[in-house]
DNA sequence: ATAGGGTTAG
């Protein structure tokens, strides 16, 4: 159609043109002809290029030399259709191109991402013919090529050369500055220039100025937001863009109230503004406000889009509102015409997270599998799903299959290993991550440090701590929290405390970690002290705080305090005690010998007692030899979790502590008969371990003496039966002297276990519960099994290591 | 001008 228009509206027919060309008389008529022909080439129209080539060819055959605006027009068409080379050829044929032609080519080179060429042409343009437009082209060019510094530099030259900037100049230079701003003074200087130039009522300029101040505020969190507000308030009219910029500015400055005021001040609220406000609430954890807006958005007749959905879905996923999240999902499916698999990528990614957080990994996987396109976020989302439900094998498989990875991928995986008792693999992955050139972030460090905590590997932990400081993450919250735990688990509460004290920011997780650290080391009084300080500093305790405090009270025999804290949970802090809390309370009462009270609690509990509660009762009965109740608890446990070997061990423990070895044997037989998977050869060691664990927490209890003598007896029994004492089983050497000996490393543990390290008589031995097998340990065990010709089985979290004749096989218990 | 994936504490 365009071609038809062109031919019919041609001022000269082909015949006329040919005649004119042959005679070569009327150059002006020919020029006019070409001008009007070129006028029909719309720069961005794809047909224009071939038309321009035809016209150009005619010019050449007719010997017509284009100049002036005909030349510029032709260059423009070539540039806009992506044929810069032809444009440049034309340009080079002209002895003295004018400023319009130069500017055309400058803009074209900039658009093509070649600001160097643009700069060359500009530099060869004499100052006398430069104009504002050519400077603007340079500034815009640098700005679009993400080179803010040069854009600002050219602007400076322009000012120095006394050229007058216009609103285009400022819009460009301001947006270029936005990318490089690191000082409020830069904003103010530009602001002054705007006022001086008289463009301070042009909306696009003011908008760019607001954006600049807002960016400055988000970087430096200074008073720049106020400056932005002043410009904003003084604007003669505002477009939606400016409003939204202000909203996100306040959101990034954590000033949600001001953001909301701006939002409420908008008369015609664009969906983008709604989305910005909602996501602002979500990022600050104000879920109810976000959902409230989400609801009102619909009432106001604003269409949801994918941005709205993703924000809201992630809000639901992160706050446990799965039901609501699924309703939204249903809504999306109903209202969007597309099939579910064709939902926008980000929406599907948010859905994956929603489902796995609701323990529906398989549904999450289904969404993942059905997606027509996936990106790294999708892979990372499903990967964390598997990691978080402890399906570590699936996670591994996925990890190996991933088309690409980023630091986050590694972080998720490292944490997954660390949390599931595969500390060594976690550390290995951390190293591999670095070898493959990925910069670890503080979360990755936190994961690796947690791995060390699980392994009880102080050496690695310290190294990571040093690296952490070198990387500049020493003020990281999550890494700091992990360090507190690592040092505590490795036996150095003082170091844990030091980290805690020197952390610039702490949160409830840090407090919980520190309280737990003290609790694990039996410092009951200090636990209470720290907890009270936490309350004074108005940090709200959460359910984990109470779990920690309750078990610390239990270990330290602080019955009254424990009960009081339990009461306060609901009454003061509005936290409904869960089953875990009840189990801890029962444990607390049982250890203090208040078994009937514990029974009373079980009877009046607001829900049916489950395994953790009965287990606490059974453990209590074991200590106090309450056989009748102990058996009842064990029976309940056999009903609830018949395949859980812990119950059998606990029951055996109870009989063991009464010296009833025949009954212990009976329990072992029942366990075998029922096909309960037991740790090969380890049941007896478990008995010893349980007693030992009891010892670790209860060194202050009067029963300690009894335990000592029992252990001696048990040790003899074990040897008689041909079992190798576990490395933890070293207590028979301990006498009455009040000297404490903390085994914090594997090598120490090993040395003691094999009698290589003689403990002073009378030392109290504390082996940290969470010490696990590290590489060195492994080697030592292998060596020992070869030299001493013994079979050694060692438990390491959920895994076992079986050493025989210097060979080792490893696996999972369950 | 707005969106989606992670971490630490028992």
UniProtKB/TrEMBL annotation:
One of its GO terms (molecular function) is zinc ion binding. Residues 722-814 form the DYW domain. Keywords: Repeat. PPR repeats lie at residues 131-165, 239-269, 270-304, 305-339, 375-405, 406-440, 507-541. The keyword Cell division does not apply. PANTHER family: DYW DOMAIN-CONTAINING PROTEIN, PENTATRICOPEPTIDE REPEAT-CONTAINING PROTEIN. This is Pentatricopeptide repeat. It comes from Macleaya cordata (Five-seeded plume-poppy). The lineage of its organism: Eukaryota, Viridiplantae, Streptophyta, Embryophyta, Tracheophyta.
């Amino acid at each position: 159609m365009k071609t038809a228009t062109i031919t019919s509206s041609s001022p000269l027919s082909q015949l006329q043109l040919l005649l004119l060309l042959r005679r070569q008389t009327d150059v002006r008529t020919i020029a006019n002809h070409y001008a009007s022909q070129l006028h029909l080439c719309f720069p961005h129209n794809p047909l224009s290029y071939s038309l321009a080539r035809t016209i150009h060819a005619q010019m050449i055959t007719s010997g017509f030399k284009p100049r002036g605006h005909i030349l510029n027009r032709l260059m423009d068409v070539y540039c806009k259709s992506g044929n810069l080379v032809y444009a440049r050829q034309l340009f080079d044929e002209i002895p003295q191109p004018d400023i319009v032609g130069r500017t055309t080519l400058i803009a074209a080179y900039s658009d093509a991402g070649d600001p160097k060429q643009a700069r060359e042409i500009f530099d060869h343009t004499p100052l006398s013919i430069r104009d504002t437009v050519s400077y603007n082209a340079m500034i815009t060019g640098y700005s679009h090529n993400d080179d803010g510094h040069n854009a600002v530099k050219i602007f400076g030259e322009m000012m120095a050369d006394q050229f007058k900037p216009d609103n285009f100049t400022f819009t460009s230079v301001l947006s270029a500055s936005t990318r490089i701003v690191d000082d409020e003074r830069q904003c103010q200087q530009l602001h002054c220039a705007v006022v001086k130039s008289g463009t301070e009522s042009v909306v696009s300029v003011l908008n760019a100025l607001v954006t600049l101040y807002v960016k400055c505020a988000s970087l430096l969190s200074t008073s720049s937001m106020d400056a932005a507000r002043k410009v904003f308030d003084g604007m003669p009219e505002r477009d939606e863009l400016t409003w939204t910029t202000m909203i996100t500015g306040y959101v990034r400055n954590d000033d949600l109230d001001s953001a909301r005021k701006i939002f409420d001040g908008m008369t015609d609220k664009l969906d983008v503004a709604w989305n910005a406000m909602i996501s602002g609430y979500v990022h600050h954890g104000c879920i109810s406000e976000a959902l409230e807006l989400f609801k009102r958005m619909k009432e106001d007749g604003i269409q949801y889009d994918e941005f709205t959905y993703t924000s809201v879905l992630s809000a639901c996923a992160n706050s446990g509102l799965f039901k609501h999240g699924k309703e939204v999902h249903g809504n999306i499916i109903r209202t969007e015409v597309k099939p579910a698999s064709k939902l926008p990528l980000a929406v599907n990614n948010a859905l994956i997270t929603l489902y796995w957080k609701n323990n529906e990994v398989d549904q999450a996987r289904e969404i993942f599998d059905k997606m027509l396109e996936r990106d790294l976020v999708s892979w990372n989302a499903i990967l964390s799903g598997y990691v978080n439900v402890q399906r570590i094998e699936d996670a591994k498989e996925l990890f190996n299959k991933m088309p690409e990875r980023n630091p986050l991928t590694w972080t998720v995986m490292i944490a997954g290993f660390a949390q599931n008792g595969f500390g060594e693999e976690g550390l290995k992955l951390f190293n591999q991550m670095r070898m493959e050139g990925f910069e670890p972030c503080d979360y990755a460090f936190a994961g690796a440090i947690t791995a060390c905590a699980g392994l009880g590997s102080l050496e690695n932990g310290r190294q990571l701590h040093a690296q952490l400081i070198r990387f500049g993450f020493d003020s990281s919250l999550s890494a700091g929290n992990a360090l507190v735990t690592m040092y505590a688990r490795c036996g150095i509460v003082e170091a844990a405390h030091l980290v805690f004290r020197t952390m610039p920011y702490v949160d409830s997780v840090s407090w919980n970690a520190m309280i737990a650290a003290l609790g694990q080391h039996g410092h009951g009084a200090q636990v209470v002290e720290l907890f009270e300080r936490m309350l004074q500093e108005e940090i709200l305790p959460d359910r984990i705080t109470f779990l920690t405090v309750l078990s610390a009270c239990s270990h330290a025999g602080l019955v009254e305090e424990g009960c009081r804290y339990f009461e306060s949970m609901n009454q003061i802090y509005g936290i409904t005690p869960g089953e875990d809390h009840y189990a801890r309370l029962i444990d607390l009462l049982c250890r203090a010998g208040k078994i009937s009270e514990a029974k009373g609690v079980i009877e009046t509990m607001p829900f049916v007692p489950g395994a953790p509660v009965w287990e606490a009762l059974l453990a209590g009965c074991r200590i106090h030899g309450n056989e009748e109740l102990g058996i009842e608890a064990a029976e309940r446990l056999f009903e609830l979790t018949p395949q859980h070997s812990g119950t059998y061990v606990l029951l055996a423990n109870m009989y063991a502590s009464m010296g009833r070895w025949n009954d212990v044997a009976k329990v072992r037989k029942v366990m075998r008969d029922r096909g309960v998977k037991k740790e090969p050869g380890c049941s007896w060691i478990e008995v010893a371990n349980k007693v030992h664990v009891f010892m670790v927490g209860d060194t202050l209890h009067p029963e300690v003496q009894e335990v000592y003598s029992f252990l001696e007896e048990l040790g003899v029994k074990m040897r008689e039966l041909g079992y190798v004492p576990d490395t933890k089983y070293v207590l028979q050497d301990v006498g009455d002297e009040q000297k404490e000996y903390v085994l914090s490393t594997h090598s120490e543990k090993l040395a003691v276990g094999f009698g290589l390290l003689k403990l002073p008589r009378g030392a109290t031995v504390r082996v940290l519960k969470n010490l696990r097998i590290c590489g060195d340990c492994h080697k030592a065990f292998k060596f020992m099994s070869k030299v001493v010709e013994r079979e050694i089985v060692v438990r390491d979290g959920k895994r076992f290591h079986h050493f025989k004749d210097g060979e080792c096989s490893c696996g999972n218990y369950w």
